[in-house]
Structure formats: C-alpha cells, structure tokens
Specification:
By secondary structure, this protein is an alpha/beta fold. It is about 20% helix and about 40% strand. The strands form 2 sheets. A 4-stranded mixed sheet has the order 1-4-3-2. A 4-stranded mixed sheet has the order 5-8-7-6, with no helix packed on it.
Length: about 140
C-alpha cells in the first residue's frame, strides 16, 4: 500500500539552467548535485545499454524535486501543451497575483492571461525552461 509520494522528478536538457529556474523563480533550495553519474544497475532497470546523467535534488519544505539531465542516452525535446498526455506539477501559493507579477518580471512565460478564477480560488499555468507544464494555485473563496 502506498504511504505517500516520495518525490517528483523532471527530466531536463540543462541541469544548471533548471537549477537556477527552480531556485531563483520558485524558491527551491539545492540539496545535492552529482555530475556524470554512471550506474550499470540503473542502465538495466531503465532498459538502456548505458546511462550517464547529472542529477540535482532540490527541497522545498518537506517536498523533494529531482532534476535529471541524461547525457547518455540523450533525450528528445517535444512540444508540450497543457492538453498533452503526461502530467504537470501544481504549486500552492498564498498570493498568486503577487507571485505571478514577480515571475513575469523575471521573464517567466505564462500560457495565457493569468490568474484565472475558479470555484475555489485562482490558478495559472506556466512552463519551465524545457516547456514542462507547471501551475500556480491559490485556494480561497472568490468574492461575489
């Protein structure tokens, strides 16, 4: 039986650029970083002959985000729309309007006009440097 989610992982094309984004824009703290990791057991587990990767572990409170840049085999970029099959991560914030404005000033691209109202608060989608879909979410009652 599952006890809890342990961590989230995002495959990235440039580990240093992604570390900077998640630290400087979203406030994560770098916990550890390893470069050119080669693991034969991991290669077999992932179904590849050779695996070489860079890895960063970032923390935000009790949450862990793992960033992985595969050097071998190289991954492929693809167009990522919010409607594509896959997933997104949502970050709960206390003041979405302030966070949105600060992120825009830092050059973050949002998917559309933001924030949007919904029955329980506000939300908006944006992407990381590799186009991974992310969401800001503020849960609160909307004034009528």
């Amino acid at each position: 039986m599952i006890e809890r989610v342990d961590h989230h992982a995002i495959i990235v094309s440039d580990i240093d650029r992604s570390i900077a984004f998640y630290q400087d824009i979203l406030g994560f703290k770098l916990h550890s970083k390893r470069e050119n990791v080669i693991r034969n057991g991991l290669s077999r587990g992932l179904g590849s002959k050779e695996i070489n990767f860079n890895e960063a572990i970032l923390k935000f409170g009790d949450d862990t985000l793992e960033l992985i840049q595969y050097n071998t085999p190289k991954g492929k970029a693809y167009d990522k729309l919010c409607s594509d099959i896959g997933m997104h991560l949502a970050f709960l914030v206390s003041d979405i309007h302030k966070m949105h404005d600060e992120m825009v000033k830092k050059g973050v691209k949002f998917n559309g006009p933001c924030p949007k109202e919904w029955a329980g608060g506000f939300w908006c989608y944006f992407t990381d440097p590799d186009g991974v879909q992310l969401e800001l979410l503020e849960k609160r009652a909307i004034s009528k």
